[in-house]
Structures are given as structure tokens and as C-alpha cells.
Amino acid sequence: MSKKISVSTSKEEKKYLEHVKKYPEQVIMAHKDSQQEGFEYFESDQFSQNNSKYGSLIMDKFLGIGLKNIPKMIKIIAKYMPSMFRGKKECFTDLSEYLEQLDKNGHIKMTKQEKKLIESYPNKELWNKLKDYAWENWNVIIGFTELPEKLIFKGKAVLFKYAIVCIQEMDKEKIDKAPSLDAGEEVQRVYNSLGLAVNDIANWLRENYGIACQSNHPLGGLVNTTPLAGKAGMGWQGHNGLLITPQFGQRQRIAPIFIRSKLFEFTDNRKHVWIEDFCNICRKCEKSCPTQAIYSKKKTSIKNVSSLGQTRTCIDRNKCYPQFNKTLGCSICMKVCPFSQGDNSYYKIKEKFNKKW
């Protein structure tokens, strides 16, 4: 029997989780009400048996796209998957020093530099440098918030409780070709690029400022990033469950960097909540979904989440993922979203919506 390849839970992640769970008082564990990470469910035997058309998700991916597209799909996978796997691995191998300190001391040491930064809160100059570094090197925008335990996926754990939320845009012209492999390639490109970005930014913080931090890859992460970004005031969940931001609409991926200390002011706000009212009227994503995977009414998934109230499930994942899988990212709902049309779409929609309602 061939060895099953996972895009979500790597052997490095499994080793990391086994390690940190020995120190429940020193790390941030998932809440008892936390949900299972999506890609982890999609790779389960239960999902494959109930939803796989050809017996495995790998076969679904290749045969579902059509024979003429198989060479292009192979090329895309060969181009990005090795780098993605390296990036996911690096997220955990970069933590080796912290894990050694946990074993030796029962806690992670704090550098003199980080102690000084705690004393000089809110470190506005450093925050601006961080924003500039993220944007100038990676075209990444950032926010900062505290991580609620309920947003950590079931069975997962993180080292630190504050999150620098990183968002990177996907190209409109390519996403507009959804569900073709051109759009799928853009999804894979940004999964890879954002993974490289958060690893680099985390290393920049460690090496230059002595800040203890943990990067987390956007593909198969440790936490639910859409509500986390919403809590950080960067946007709000759309009708299809994806984040909508003023800068990029829905054309983005999200990844966090966890840090130990509250070194910066939170960017938390509720100014994007109006998006939900607009989406309830619009519903273009729901009408355009080829598998009817988007619920007409969102379902409450976790109650009493700090500063959010609740998280909601917006899609039937059993209908969504086979389409996502065979196209390397589908993105039809993202393409048709009015907020994703560029040219200040967010502000134009908000102005018209406020006048009408």
C-alpha cells in the first residue's frame, strides 16, 4: 500500500504537537469546543469513502479535471508543492530552540530585547517598520490581535497567544478565470508565497528584535484564520465564509505569526460588520456555486468566541471540497463577489449601501 501524502498535517507538525502537549500550562491549547481543521477532514478515510468519485482524492484531482488538463495540473503541482512542503516544514523546524528550552527549563526564555519592547509598549515605530517590511518584501498587509482558544483547531496547539495576521492578495485577472487551472495556479502560488512570507517575517522579528514568535503556513494551519482576521479588524466574513477586505475583496489568503507578548496596539475594530448585511441581500456566490455548497443561512458552529460572539459555518464541505480539489482551488464564488472587482469596490459598495439602507 502506498504511503498517504498529507497536505495538511505533516510529520513535523505531528512531532511538534506531541512535544508541546507535554506542557499544557506553557502553551495555548485548543478549546474543547474547537472544530477540526478543514483539510485534515478532507484527507480522512471517512471523507474519501463518502465523497471520492474515483476512490482517492489524488485520482479525483487528476481525472476530475479532464485528460487534456492533466499535463498542466502536473506542471502546477511540480512548481509549487515542493516549496509549500518545505515552507510548512520550516514553520516547525524553526521552533526547535523553543522546544529545547521547554524541555530544559519548563518555559521559553525571554530575551533582553523582548523585555525592553514590553516596557516600551506600544512600539509604534517598530509596528510601522514591521508593516513596511511585510509590504515592501512580500506585498503583505498585517493586523494584530489576541488569539481566542476557540479559534485553535481541534487537537492543535500554539506557543504564543498574540497573533500578527498576514494577508496576501491573489491576482484579479487570474482569479477571474475560475474555475480554470489558471485560477487554481494562482491559489497555489499565493499559498506558497504567503507561507514563505510568514516564515521570513518571523525570522526577521527573531533575528533583529529578539521576539519569540511562531509562523504558521496558510495551507492546513493551526487556527481558523478568517474569524481571526475579522477580530483583528481587517475585514469580515462573507456569505461563502471567506474573508472580505477593503484592499482585496475576497482575493486573498491568510496566515498568522504568533508572538508571546503584547508588543503592539490591537487593530481590533467592528467597522466591517456591515458586510454581512450586504451579503444577505447579494448572495451572488451562493447562486454561482456549481455544487450548491453555500448555505442560504449560516449555521452557528462555535458560540461565545471572545470579541466575535460566534463563528458560523457557511458551506457544506462535502460538496465544496471535491470541486476545490479537482480545480486546485475553484474560486468561482471569489470571482463573482462584488467586493473582488478591484478599483475600490469595497468603498463604492459601502457608499451605495449606506445611501440605500
From TrEMBL:
Matches recorded under SUPFAM superfamilies: 4Fe-4S ferredoxins
GO molecular function, one term: metal ion binding
This protein's UniProt keywords: Iron, Iron-sulfur, Metal-binding
Protein name in the entry: 4Fe-4S ferredoxin-type domain-containing protein
InterPro entries reported in the protein's UniProt record: 4Fe4S_Fe-S-bd, 4Fe4S_Fe_S_CS
Residue ranges of domain 4Fe-4S ferredoxin-type in the record: 270-299
Any coiled-coil regions, as ranges: none
Pfam families for this protein: Fer4_16
PANTHER family linked: IRON-SULFUR CLUSTER-BINDING PROTEIN, IRON-SULFUR CLUSTER-BINDING PROTEIN-RELATED
